[in-house]
Specification:
The complex is a heterodimer of chains A (410) and B (165). With 410 residues, chain A is α/β, with parallel strands linked by helices. Chain A is built from 16 helices and twelve strands. A seven-stranded mixed beta sheet of chain A has the order 2-8-7-6-5-3-4, with helices on both faces. In chain A, strands 9-12-11 form a three-stranded antiparallel beta sheet, covered by helices on one side. In chain A, strand 5, helix 10 and strand 6 form a beta-alpha-beta unit. Chain A is globular and about 60 Å long. Chain A starts with 5 loop residues before the first helix and ends with a helix. Helices cover 32% and strands 21% of the residues of chain B. Chain B has five helices and six strands. Chain B has a four-stranded antiparallel beta sheet. Chain B has a two-stranded antiparallel sheet with strand order 5-6. In chain B, strand 2 and strand 3 form a beta hairpin. In chain B, helix 2 crosses helix 3. The chains are: A alpha/beta (410), B alpha+beta (165). At the A-B interface, helix 4 and helix 14 of A face helix 1 and helix 2 of B.
Chain lengths: 410, 165
């Protein structure tokens, strides 16, 4: 598989800090807050990849489909028509209206397009806005773990204190009332989670959400629910926490177009919340982002109107690949639960006696298969690796073979 | 034959990859390999699954051939309509596909030959001379952009980053 690593190399070079004194002196210019957030945990894997060829990458957090062509054309057409100026801070009215009716019909979520929805530069921005809108310095934020790598850094940048909320495999990677009770204190302001989950593929169903809703209400906690994988479920439909009445008024719902419509590079997502929170997030958004990319907003309109079939085909395909890949992992002796959502398998590699970092590094060097070490996603990810099965069937088959060979060599 | 959801899924997978094995297909669709095989046999027997084939870029393979789109106007026969004449045309191996269409002509043929001369001799000698054929118009294909859902001229896409969260 031919991979052009030039961009990768540039990203490494620009991040590498040499140990000469000049660089050290320059470090003193960097704010303590910026210094306090950890760098991405996989830089050394990027480094290694540069030296290799014929790598099968299961390391990516995005679909391997192109954006549906009619959606891309809508973006191109908007540029041709000259729609290249700002939109309102909140985003195009037509898009907000469509998001509102889409959320209602899909998840029975009710958000007013006028003052309860902001179109953002992807969920990444929405996450930052949400955290900064509600977290004060010293507030404790419960971060369901393992999770997407930006959660804790966003909390730290807002001055909050991230508290790990373990969601281990024995709990099917869900947030349980017992563990929530164990971690809640009088300083807890916010609970952040992402279901269907990156990196585990775990989901929370209606009963799971009901089981924790009383705790959330009794302790007057807010909930930040990142639902970017909501359309990628394979066993049952996604249940949005804010569709449970008592949770609506204290939930910030984040979603977007990246995964469902294979639009990661377009950078378009949205934040939905009660009007007071939305207004606060909008203030931050207008100062730091102004508006989501205009052409991407037009593409998103097309996605909501005319990409249902393409999306359904993609989801059906992911489900088949999941079945194939997970069966393959279990066959070669790598214990893996069946992920119910997203496009990640998160097998335990503890039986190998290697740490997840060693496993990922040696697998890459010895068999040229790239997976992400689970510890990069938080303490509960230790002993696992994340394999994105958003790869071709041929690559998945070959990857299983190579992982099998690797296991036998240990 | 009445098809269910699983049959439909089998057909969809095979349409994009006819080489997939029964075992993989079964794992993907939660069926045993034996059940996959019996379903495929039934689909073949019912004439739903017609042929397993490959899409080939012959030009790239260095094989010179000439493809033509041929429009044919036909006088339909009172008893058979277009069917008898169409079935007769379809028997020629030079005719790769044949459709009855609406619009200003009746039959649309894709004809393939080694040279332009071969194609034109075939059309004038074998097709135009048939009874009830009123007129033919031959369009020589200059470049094929897409065949059987395969974009032949598209360059390789841009690679994704090998790692992202």
């Amino acid at each position: 598989m031919a991979v052009n690593y030039r961009e990768v190399k540039e990203s490494i070079v620009s991040h590498t800090v040499s140990d000469n004194s000049r660089a050290a002196r320059k470090m003193s210019y960097i704010s303590k807050r910026a210094q306090s957030i950890p760098p991405s945990g996989i830089r050394k894997f990027f480094d290694l990849l540069l030296t290799m060829s014929d790598v099968i990458s299961l390391g990516v957090g995005e679909p391997d489909f192109n954006t549906p062509w009619n959606v891309s054309v809508a973006g191109i057409t908007s540029i041709e028509k000259g729609a290249t100026s700002y939109t309102s801070n909140k985003g195009l009215e037509e898009l907000r209206n469509l998001i509102s009716s889409d959320l209602l019909s899909r998840y029975r979520l009710q958000y007013d397009p006028n003052d309860e929805i902001i179109v953002t530069g992807g969920v990444s921005e929405a996450l930052d806005l949400a955290v900064r809108a509600v977290v004060d310095p010293g507030d404790e934020v419960l971060v369901a773990d393992p999770c997407y790598v930006s959660y804790s850094p966003c909390v730290i940048l807002a001055g909050g204190v991230p508290i790990t909320l373990p969601c281990p495999e024995e709990n099917e990677f869900r947030v349980t009332p017992e563990i929530l009770m164990d971690k809640v204190t009088k300083n807890t302001k916010l609970l952040m989670f992402n279901f269907p989950n990156n990196p585990t593929g775990g989901v929370m169903d209606r009963d799971d959400l009901k089981a924790i809703s009383d705790i959330i209400i009794d302790h007057d906690i807010l909930l930040l629910s990142d639902e970017i994988y909501s359309e990628l479920t394979y066993e049952s439909r996604h249940v949005a926490p804010a569709s449970l009445d008592p949770l609506w008024e204290r939930t910030i719902t984040l979603n977007g177009f990246s995964k469902a419509y294979s639009m990661t590079g377009w950078r378009v997502g949205y934040l939905c919340a009660p009007p007071e929170i939305t207004a606060a997030a909008l203030k931050i958004h207008q100062y730091v982002m102004l508006c989501a990319p205009t052409m991407s907003q037009y593409a998103a309109i097309e996605a909501l109107q005319k990409a249902e079939e393409a999306k359904d085909r993609m989801v059906a395909d992911f489900k088949m690949r999941r079945n194939l890949f997970v069966a393959g992992l279990n066959r070669i002796g790598l214990s893996c639960h069946l992920p119910k959502g997203a496009f990640y398998a998160f097998p335990s590699i503890e039986s190998t006696g290697l740490s997840d970092e060693e496993f990922a590094e040696r697998l890459l060097i010895e068999q040229q298969v790239a997976v992400a070490p689970g510890s990069a996603f938080g303490p509960s990810g230790v002993g696992h690796v994340r394999c994105a099965y958003a790869a071709s069937r041929e690559d998945l088959d070959e990857a299983v073979k190579r992982i099998g060979t690797f296991l036998e060599s240990l | 034959m009445t098809m269910d959801m699983k049959d439909r899924e089998i057909l969809q997978v095979l349409e994009s990859d006819s080489r997939i094995g029964d075992e993989d297909l079964g794992t993907m669709l939660n069926l045993s390999p034996a059940e996959v095989r019996s379903r495929i046999n039934a689909l073949e027997k019912a004439g739903i699954l017609r042929k397993y084939t490959a899409v080939i870029d012959w030009k790239k393979a260095g094989e010179d051939s000439v493809t033509a789109v041929v429009e044919v106007k036909v006088s339909p026969e009172s008893e058979f309509g277009y069917d008898r004449i169409a079935l007769r045309v379809a028997r020629f191996p030079e005719v790769h596909s044949l459709r009855l269409v609406t619009g200003s002509y009746d039959l649309q043929l894709i004809v393939v030959g080694k040279t332009m001369q071969e194609v034109s001799e075939f059309v004038s000698g074998q097709i135009a001379s048939l009874e009830n054929i009123r007129e033919t118009v031959t369009h020589i294909v200059m470049k094929t952009y897409k065949e059987h859902g395969c974009e032949l001229q598209r360059s390789e896409g841009i690679d994704r980053l090998p790692y992202s969260f």
